[in-house]
Predict the structure.
Amino acid sequence: MTDPPEFKLSRKGGEYVGKRSKSISGFPCATWLSHNESSEILLPGFSDEVDASHRFCRNPNGQPHGPWCYVDADAGPEWEYCDVPFFSDVHGERCDVRIEGHCVHPRECKMDVTGLSYTGRKNVTIKGHQCQRWMSNFPNDQLLFGTENQTFPDDLHLQHNFCRNPTGDEGGPWCYKSNGIGLDYCDIPICY
């Protein structure tokens, strides 16, 4: 197949065989066989043939958020998800916030001080920092901070970089900074 589809059919995207070869943060993907210790374990999970030049985004081990790759950059994370979209019957519809797969129109305020249920689209902190995507490992390696175990009121997707409070922080909704290490709080008004 010379031009495979550039979308996934399932959430995990194990069937994806497209040609995307950059991570969500724009880092080039490394060749899969350059990671000798991992490649033997992962090879049976590939949906296509892997050779020495294969550096396409795949999900051979069933990561929960879809295709990923090892990163070929000294300053980047070891691995990161790739931005492989879902196939959609409804073209042109933008859906920033989803709950259980359904598109919702969120309120841009929080119901209580901690904002545990806040699902708005604010993605800039009090100090003016743009929020890092929750599923990106750069510049903050969120895997070290336990992102997989945090609780979100909505579905995470690759572009999701909205202020949330997945840890129940008393300071309210927050996010990791996309332009530096660490986190910052967001100014979300209380609903009246």
